[in-house]
Amino acid sequence: MTPPNIILSFLCCYLLLIAKPPLTGAASGRWQVLQNNIGITAMHMQLLNDDRVVIFDRTDFGKSNLSLPNGECRRDPDDTALKVDCTAHSAEYDVATNTFRALFVQTDVWCSSGAVMPDGRLIQTGGFNDGERRVRIIQPCATCDWQEVPNGLAARRWYATNHILPDGRQIIIGGRKQFNYEYYPKSSGTTGTFNFPFLAQTNDAGLENNLYPFVFLNVDGNLFVFANNRAVLFDYKNNKIVKTYPQIPGGDPRCYPSTGSAVLLPMKNLQSQFVEAEVLVCGGAPKGSYAQALKKNFVGALDTCARIKITDPNPQWVMETMPLARVMGDMTLLPNGNVLIINGAASGTAGWESGRNPVLNPVIYRPDNKLGSRFETQNPTTIPRMYHSTAILLRDGRVLVGGSNPHVGYSFTNVLFPTELRLEAFYPAYLDAQFSNLRPKIVTPASQTQIKYGQSLFVRFTVTGTLAPNLVSVTMVAPPLATHSFSMNQRLLVLGAGKVTSLGKSTYQVQVTTPGSGILAPSGFYLLFVVHQDIPSEGIWVQIK
């Protein structure tokens, strides 16, 4: 039972900020606690195009510390913890006001998946128990709540991965004991499941090591699918593997529960005849670590990253060494094209009580630096972010960090790593005041502007200091759904630096061309940034269609 002094009681569904939270740190990155208690743990997070973040954990944790509004209760005879529960297991965080409200999720969303549709709705799929075949939908608005579709999925989806396709559908791949995929929404001929033997081939008996596979849409329209320690290029339309990539050197697993993370690195030169694509996989746990963790022997995490150019005719993994070993880390693409590696542990694996030695220092990875000089350790947090932690990019360039609950229920006392209800923001160094004169501010287009494929786009911005025209670029970032150390549908496109024109009074205009197709940039909402000398502006929302 949670001690009374930390139980929150809500007369309405918002908790208002009373005082500005203090900042900590100075040198390389800063930390700020935004909320001391949002009532639930941030197991899953998704930023929507109204600058609100949808957060959810699981219904069978027992009572949360966030009451449902207006005396509502969830009555679920199938729930494994509480048949009647008057507390919330989902919340919406309003970035602009630093407030949150309870959301009402009706069935278990534990270890589920999802992605934002082209129209801005979050479609969340699967979960556990009575939630395993559910589809849940939430619109971006101040009063919207979850709507549920019973039996919206053809198969049980628990620990699956979703990705938006060029035609606007989602593909849902894998899950526990599901060596197949399906689509949402359903259409004629796609109502069932499609076998994907690669998932069975990468399943370690009794250990799995292939859940939450890393999935990225390649520039040829096929899917790069990584599971365990290897990957394929998959033609999902014809249910055919078109390329098999080499195994990562060393052969150690990188997927759940030996959880590493992965990103599709920023895509550039989008107008070229051949656009290159690279994937970076970092961290994880050595072979056998999960079985050892169950015996309370916590093996040191992997300290390597593996990088591969997936568009090469003869692709090979290039190994790099991180400054800190890490399992259960998150990888977040920053607006300037760098990668933030954050959260996690230095030993053990994912799973209940299976991680030890929290890694408190994030690391910045600079993909364009020379091999051997790409990593930079950042200032540490004071809050361990272990199993069930998340991190996502916000429109202002901060990274929202939440979660951590390695326990079967909410546990706040007499445990090594208490259930964590605090939300933090990490401020990368580009937000430091010393760079304010270099920081662009977008004047036009306005946020929420619709853009088309292959369109010439003029972006007007101000810079109060001296502009370096050859160090200006425009980037577009697809906000992902983050859970279990993987950010589904995360994507960054560099629109390049076209001609930069001075308009006087510290105002400039840059001309760029938007991505040419839904293969490069699936239709939907993106954050658009102007980057000057590695310093990004605050983003604006654009919808490409």
TrEMBL record:
Stretches assigned to the Galactose oxidase-like Early set domain: 439-544
UniProt keywords, alphabetically: Oxidoreductase, Secreted, Signal
CDD domains, per the entry: E_set_GO_C
GO molecular function: oxidoreductase activity
Signal peptide residues on this chain, from the entry's feature table: 1-26
Subcellular location: Secreted
GO cellular component, one term: extracellular space
Domain Glyoxal oxidase N-terminal intervals: 43-430
Pfam families documented for this protein: Glyoxal_oxid_N, GO-like_E_set
Protein name (record): Aldehyde oxidase GLOX
